[in-house]
């Protein structure tokens, strides 16, 4: 009986609201006129009361004439009220309706009360602060020393010119003395019958010595050239790649000093002035002055020149390697900042689509079609399918110097979207209050000119109760519900107040009102344009190309001399036993080469990730094809250094070393 009574009571509502009134148009129009919707509700209640009174108190049979007159008067009154009211303006144009339908198709909002991400927002966007923050520049005192040693800006100070000339003269003079004395010593060493030095060994040592002399002189010239380049100096910072939390430049300095010191220590026997007592089958591989048959003074000059030139060579090459590591680190940070800007660009697009979807859901909450039924049922499933870099930390809470330029746009879009959601759901936000101060340049807006519902505009302070983008009341609900406002709610807000609230939102965030209003009206998200994307990408390509052109000759020389050094050691171990000192001298240059090339590989690896961070849109398809075919890379004479190439070289050297050990054991 109770169930029948409920059905009987609700039947007039169903008859009047569903059969007589277009529910969809009523809900859409009510967003712009609460007074009109409240009038329809009052008329509906009056009609229901009249129907109940007639059903319970009047006898059955033909309806009395008074009732018919009352009905006619009521219908006439309601028709007069409808004719007096002007129809509300259109909510969306055809173009805007198309954009909102696309937004509804992209995001699942049919079974969600809110469109805020249900995935917990992580504290960052995948990049640590140290990965996108530049270090301090070269100190003034260090810069003064470097310019004086390299001979930069010598016109301002004659003392700098004197120091630069002296350093250049000592470098070249020690290199010439080392080359000449070493060549004479090797000739006598090969001719002598008391040593095992062959012509092949002498040629290998001569090539290695020529590389050593040439790379030292060229490194000094290259360092002066790099510090004289204004654009290149801007990239030099007090930072470099880190290995196990240690600065790579410091590691290379320590390893270089260790290798040079070990090599000088292992060749100290050339100064022996006593003739060693050896047999024919057991002669020294490295001859001395006595066994080679040369004067001891020549050997002393050769050893001293070798030590002096090794110091200068070490100085200039370490200076260039430090510059290389610093510049590569700067390029890596620039690439990561660009990727971070692209990630924020993607998030801006997502916030814009969410805002459009919220607006479309509010405008037509009961509109369903086949495409909506085929969409996923949860927003979390969509967000989880977008990738790991979906969440970006709350802007304004963390002060990060590495924030991109479009961080303010993302903050504005997020606040507008939250404000829209708060006022469209009265249970999740407090009633709107008038702003304390009007904006400096208020703009009068009509409800039809705003793509956002006017009831969804509020001051930014209303969304401060969000911790991570979600409200407590919306985390446990999954259905969209819209209840028309009752008569006991507060009075509707007029258009002037709503326009003032809309201006307050944009002006309080420091955003360009015209930009956001035009973007929201046209349905175009305020993301990076294709021209800006290609221009920034082209800047990275040119910077890496210039760096490759300046450093490729020195880098190729370093790779060649290290590989030649290791090859000579492997050949030496085919006929001699392996010592710990020789093994250390063999391995340390390979480690230094790995550290230098890994700086190149890191830049190329990060540059390869750029295209994966670009939001693919129909307008960007040609740009993505260009970015795929012309990636920014650091090259050495058209050869791209990557982690795969480094691994291949290391594996080849390891196989060669193992082969030499096996041959030594077999020959024994």
From TrEMBL:
TM region(s), chain numbering: 165-188, 200-219, 246-265, 314-335, 550-572, 578-596, 636-663
Low complexity bias spans: 426-463
Keyword Membrane attached: yes
Keyword Transmembrane helix: yes
The entry's keywords: Membrane, Transmembrane, Transmembrane helix
Biased composition annotated in UniProt, kind: Polar residues: 476-490
Region (Disordered) location: 51-90, 420-496
Name of the protein this chain belongs to: Uncharacterized protein
